[in-house]
């Protein structure tokens, strides 16, 4: 008997997943809080205790220690191999950050916020929260190293292995420093090799799947990833980096292409990080993108690295922690926070309203130094870590190479200069003609020899309320016509990035900067920029500076209809250039904005949406705006494999989360505009669905839409 379909369709646009209630766990009466639980099986996150305080090493430095590297690789692989159902398995620990949504270690969430992970972004809690998270990961990693060390033959081999295991810590990846091997690029080769060679405790040698290259799900739990059904994570058996098509079932990683993008961005990351570590801003400003640091903030640098991996796991908030590279990236972020803390010990977390919610914290709740860093317990009693109790990183049993000797600020400054000092810190007006070809543009050039100089940057104001990850990219010269080539374009300078998702629902304006000074110095070196006088530089920028907006799917967001509140402004500021390596530059005058430098907006006559050269992905859209007809077009809705059967009536309720593109003036406002085609039967849709759709002055607005429809299936 043939099946027939009788459909009832209900379209609900979820533009806010956050409850309005205050987080029940938010406490201001002490350094920790307790959460009610049915048993006493809290996991105590303590880091590595009883072995001393040992440094987390940079990945490439750790690899030079062959014995330590050998044990580390095997421990990482064993961690990944743990049963995914165990509380401290790689799978469960990674899932704390996002999916699978739900509680960890008995810490329940707020009603209405079930589609969120625990991690805070766009928040003063961003840095402090990740500290016990990394300590938990490091704790389990160290335990696996000890297990392996105990498998060595008794006597000297085992004693040696145990001594090495005592020092095993989570390494960091310093993506801001100049790479030690320029031919290798910024991304260590150890992250890009599919296999690794190890020596086992019994002395034999063999090749293993490189645990730093990817995580293999065992098994892939389809239902855990269906909340992100606008993507294909529910169908990918392992983590993927920077795929060509992020919506393809058979997507593959492109590590070398990701390395090329990250390497191109590295000089600007270095220059920006140097400013953030050497120019004082209070912790609540510099630590995150919610609170308006005028120079910039650490979180946007963090976001840019994530965005460099495109629509792979690392690029999407809710699944990023499954990619091994997440842990080395965040260890570096924690190191950056520690360097800042050591340099500015008197500033730390202060109370701030939350721009977005999490699983346990409501949007708008005030979080501060005594707020719990859920779900991380300090002890079996259920006391939670807070920003206050986790302020000293050494309490978790680790430190960083630059901080091992508790250096003076002068010594630390010298170290930062060696690591990150820009090649050119300012443009001196004494240089009215370009240097001879082949001469140096380094720190000893005339561009830096003068005490007074000019620093050039562009300030970017980025709204987060469009709920997608995107970047503003700056160029000196016209960028390639194809947006996919922008991150590696010869004219590319750098980006300001924002990592987001429809489930985050934040609505702040992020402020940050892209450094122009060094690229201008290079243009002067080549003779293209004839003079370093301010008027000459401004005229050059007016003719050559440009910027573009790019979504995570590599498509262009047209500048002629940008997200509301987005703004890019070139500015200059007087800077005093230091005369020694234990000093840092200082802005010592008024900022001068050059609002007449518009950045050469493009002419949109391409074949893509809005006249761009972008190609709209076919698999991530519930519909699209047809520029030729001026109408909103819905794609056919199809049944998702995710669903459930109502045994009472034989009705299968299928719920499918998709992504739509909304263009101002084209968003559906009635059922007639939005009625989809579901198999052969016309749909009946409730009229109320579209009155709450949020429309701003933006061309591309990505939001989650849940499509529910019932199908009667005789014989089931």
Describe the overall structure.
- The protein contains 15 helices and 24 strands.
- With 716 residues, the chain is α+β, with helices and mostly antiparallel strands.
- The model is unreliable at 1-39, 430-446 and 616-716 (pLDDT under 50).
- Helices cover 23% and strands 18% of the residues.
- The strands form nine sheets. Strands 10, 13, 15, 16 and 17 form a five-stranded antiparallel beta sheet that branches. A four-stranded antiparallel beta sheet has the order 1-24-21-20, with no helix packed on it. A three-stranded antiparallel beta sheet has the order 12-11-14.
- The protein has helices at residues 59-64, 66-81, 90-95, 126-149, 156-166, 222-225, 255-278, 283-286, 298-307, 325-343, 409-420, 446-449, 517-526, 534-544, 671-674; strands spanning 9-14, 54-55, 195-199, 205-209, 352-353, 366-367, 372-377, 384-386, 398-399, 452-463, 470-476, 492-498, 509-515, 545-551, 567-576, 586-587, 592-594, 623-626, 631-634, 643-646, 651-661, 677-678, 681-682, 702-712.
- A hairpin with a 6-residue loop joins β7 (372-377) and β8.
- The protein has three domains: 31-349 and 358-410, di-copper center containing domain from catechol oxidase (Orthogonal Bundle), CATH 1.10.1280.10; 422-601, no CATH class; 621-712, no CATH class.
- α4 runs antiparallel to α5 (156-166), α4 packs across α10 (325-343) and α9 (298-307) runs antiparallel to α10.
